[in-house]
Protein 1
Amino acid sequence: MADMTRERIGGLLARQGILIAFVAFMIVFALANPRFIAVDNILGVVRSTAILGVIALGVTFVVIGGNLDLSVGSMMSFSTIVVLDLHDKIGPALAIPAMFALTLGLGAFIGFLVGYLKLNSLIVTLGMLSAIHGLTLTWSGGKNMDIADKEGTWFSVFGQGSVLGLPVPILIFALLAVVLSLLLSRTPFGRKVYAVGGNGTAAVFSGIPRARVVFLTYLVSSGCVAVAGLLQASRSLGSQNTVGQGLELEVLAAVILGGASLLGGSGTVFKTVIGVLILGFIQNGLLLMGLAFYVQYVVTWVIIVLAVWLDVAAKRGRLLSPIA
């Protein structure tokens, strides 16, 4: 009986451990600083995590499809710099679609390499991380970008505007989450993504075009990166050319925290949103407790390790390996 109870508790912790830890973090932060649960602080956290969240929504498709995308950080830097540069040259009405086209082109190239040429996604996207960073520096001439007329442009509405008291970035994040959740859970394409990530060989023998599905997941990911670049550029109307550097690790942490398996075939958009909020509120709580911002990096690393451990534990039904 005792062994059975321990196995049940271990299984519960393996499946829901990160949510239990999140609730514990929230209680500790609220007790440490009552401002943590203030409405303005909550809206501020969600707004600040909207860019990370938008990227994570797209990466969810890639991970469920059984692949990785480590290029999203440098790709966001590229999209942000491009739209800011083109804003003053051709105007925002043309700069936005041009940036989307270029960013989708990068995603299509990665999707072709991973999907049709069947190259390892880790190697491809790690290489593209450096390549896109170099492309960004080449485009900007190594300089940061700023919009000349910051007061007379409607471009700022995406990052600074609000509707009915809610910041536009939050509304865009929420709307995109709803659309992509329906795409993943209620369409044939979504079912094919799960099938390819769960067992690619079986999916091919079932008549599912694996290469095309993988290709499209990277298009979805790059499209979300383009939206994030738009939000970033619009929020500050200027940017460093390394604004997305290191963001890929936070995105991956959020996706894994949401329950998406690194082995592919499992995960949901809704749970990814929860993972994004977990990271955002933990980082905010650490700052309100007076800890230095660089402590967040250590905490993020611990969360990634914990999430991977719980992911593996959920697969085998216990926290520790039976061999240990």
Protein 2
Amino acid sequence: MSAVCVRTYAKLNLTLNITGKAGGYHLLDSFVASVDIFDEITLRARTDGKISVRMCGMGSEAILPADNAAVRAAQAFCRRFGTGGADIVVQKNIPMGAGMGGSSADAAGVLNGMSALYGKGEYAELRSLADGLGSDTGYMLRGGFARMRGRGEKLESIPDGMPLAFLLLFPGVPVSTAACYAAYDASPDGRREDTENCLRAFMAGDVAATGKSFYNALFAPACRLVPAVARAAQAARALSPLGWGMTGSGSAVFALFVSRAEAEEAARRCRGEFSAVAACSVPMSAGI
């Protein structure tokens, strides 16, 4: 195979509890879901072993190669399997700095794409590489609904169950992840039960109870750092959703609705400083 094209999906943290720290890292317990906003990655094989990555869209052109997760993923794959290189084009659609896992999605997409391109790499081998590239990169290899614990390396896939429809609000201002965790450490909340409650409601097919169980321990710190996050949450609540939350360390806020049609109608009603996009959950992928 000389060329492949893959889609790699954004994620939402429907819950995010902080359960402790180990080795200087925060430990999480999070119910995550993939949504149908995706980056598209095209890979073409080259025989000289070199890697080139071109980023397109969402301001990604400014990412330096040394900071580019797609570059690191391709290099790690080539080292592990001794393959040729690749010319890689990443068309960004996942907003940057939104807490939707765009960087991890690109790394996971490159690993999946390189595996298809060269016919090498079972899932367990790709997981090993992914876990070394970023906290939630292993999850992004297949996505879907999952419970993610520890630093993100402890994954439990959740049956697809009912589809979920969201309205996403983007403040357009990133939240520093490091600063957000530092702010949390200065005023921890100690809550633990939200992920368990949300999973129980989801697996029972109770969409209303699922929405009521959304929670993110980093929301209050993110609001203190970037007040636009609080305003986005207020705008989301004003639309009378079944539930609302923030993903990752921000800055994107989401609101849950019964159907995509209702989420799209809410997007039309949403006016003001935030861009609004409707999205739906997507099931776990088996790869390419």
Protein 3
Amino acid sequence: MEKECEKLLRGITGIVRECGGIILNADRSKSVVDAKEGHANFVTTYDKMIQEKLKKELLALLPEAVFVGEEEDVHASVEKGYAFIADPIDGTTNFIRDYHASAVSVGLAKDGAPYMGVVYNPYPDELFTAVKGLGAYLNGQPIHVSSHSLKDGIVIFGTATYYEELAERTFALAYDYYKRSLDVRRSGSAALDLCSIAAGRAELFYELRLCPWDYAAASLIVTEAGGRVTTVEGGELPFGASCSVMATNGVCG
């Protein structure tokens, strides 16, 4: 059983690494950028290209699974059996601007709960992985959340730019955390922010609305690294609907 699990993880990481290569070698001059609903909500030719590759190759790897991707109009239920929940480029605006903070994110859910997570930032060649109950890893080495308190910690937040009605509350929280922590950060990729919590690089992350493909993989990486992930209100994350997300090292709150 463990060998089958390892084989599946190797297959997923291989596909994700190849998709990261597409990001690195992208010719932005030939990429069409379309606007989706909401402020600064974009999709590029490469988002669609990578999602098609992920869907085709992940389902070939595990044919009994369903596939849920950001760039699909209709999403399958993830409540029963296996479900890949994928974001082809998390941090699309960063990708468009060549900001080097974008990731390929693939979560595998089993009966509605996280089972595997893979997040790859191709720019520094950082591959974060986790399997339920087996710990979290960065490029094959174990990672763990930090033990810093909030006053000695870094807070990362997402501005939920597509949801302008959340802006005032988002920045009010950021100012409150700024006063109570070492400093605040904003990267533009929720998946990478969550992985920063898992790797002990920061202590608290929040965003007031995210979709399952933003956190399906990285939330498992955080919990397997010893951290805690809930909604901002303290509830369990749903994997079939959008919600707020808060991740901590278990000390901050």
Protein 4
Amino acid sequence: MSLLEETLSPEQLNPADYDAIYFTGGHAVMYDFPDSAGLQRLTRDIFESGRLVASVCHGYCGLLNTTLTDGSYLIAGRKMTGFSWREEKLARVDKLIPYNAEQVAKDRGAKYRRAMLPFVSHVVVDGNLITGQNPGSAKATAEAVAARLP
């Protein structure tokens, strides 16, 4: 409980202390994750050192604005997934959310992939980037991460 009461901010964390970063989902992360300089720094350092960067569902919003040291987007040219625009529409929240994350990912150069059917488990692995499409993908995404941890 003391760890919860004294949670460190991303700026206080040393990326060298972590084998992976795993972004979880939920619509709130569409607001909290994309512009967090601390999360972007952690993600960039972990990714560029060859360690794992993972997300599930809306967690990929934490990757949308993350750039590498060369200035390119982390997701540019990489296969990945996340909660699809089709799923947003089927859940009837497309008019309530601040942006179309799938389209932003594509605009950033991601090779976005989605399952043929909405809401089924779908995981995409591209090197040290592991992404799951929706809540139903959480277990498979976690297993993909765990299988690659030292």
